[in-house]
Design a protein that fits this description.
By secondary structure, the protein is mainly beta. 5% of the residues lie in helices and 21% in strands. It has a 3-stranded antiparallel β-sheet with strand order 3-9-8, with no helix packed on it. Strands 4-6-5 form a 3-stranded antiparallel β-sheet. About 13% of the residues have low confidence.
């Protein structure tokens, strides 16, 4: 009978936010550190559970898997729920077969705090202080100041004026190709719609 491998991190107080996860040994780049566990529920159920949550509470154990499933780590969750957000992360979330894993994207030294980009989605009905509520305090030189994505609130598109004439079609030409994702075959949670209550989506 093989001996189970010791956990690669432990949970303790973090300078970033509340509790955090800290490496207990050297973790090599590409290592699958842990799985994000919890009860798997629909987006509708996730909304129902947290509808009474205060709008100034930035704490979330929800993680979007896809358009149908959200993991609620507040129910039957593991220590993965304590890994904090970071704008210069050393980990990333990877979704495979509708399961979410946290993997190292560079070598992590013992005692270093594990972080990945939550990429919490913005919504059209965000309150004016949403960036203050979801402010990031990771301390990275490249910190964008918020756990939300995109980093800045999108500007509303101007409404077309009534009776305005359509612009003539421009000359046909080449359009710049969209940048293709260069990720592995594993898909990540960012493709799902945002649940009404804030949920992590991965980078």
């Amino acid at each position: 009978m093989s001996t189970p491998k010791p956990q690669m991190f432990r949970v303790r107080r973090s300078r970033v936010h509340g509790l955090g996860a800290f490496a207990t040994r050297r973790i090599r780049k590409g290592t699958r550190i842990t799985e994000y566990l919890g009860e798997r529920v629909s987006h509708k159920e996730a909304d129902r559970r947290y509808e009474a949550k205060s709008s100034d509470d930035n704490h979330t154990f929800l993680f979007i898997v896809d358009r149908g499933i959200v993991i609620d780590a507040g129910v039957s969750g593991n220590d993965a729920r304590f890994i904090n957000h970071g704008c210069d992360p050393n980990c990333e979330s990877v979704t495979e077969d509708r399961r979410v894993f946290i993997e190292a994207i560079r070598t992590i030294q013992p005692g270093e705090e594990l972080k990945y980009d939550y990429s919490i989605g913005r919504a059209k009905d965000d309150p004016p202080d949403v960036d203050e509520v979801f402010a990031c305090h990771c301390g990275a030189a490249t910190c964008r100041g918020t756990m939300l994505w995109p980093a800045k609130r999108p500007k509303p598109r101007p409404k077309p004026r009534p009776n305005s004439r359509p612009k003539p079609a421009g000359r046909a030409g080449k359009t710049a190709p969209r940048r293709a994702a260069t990720r592995r075959t594993a898909t990540r949670g960012s493709g799902a719609r945002t649940t009404g209550k804030r949920a992590k989506r991965g980078a």
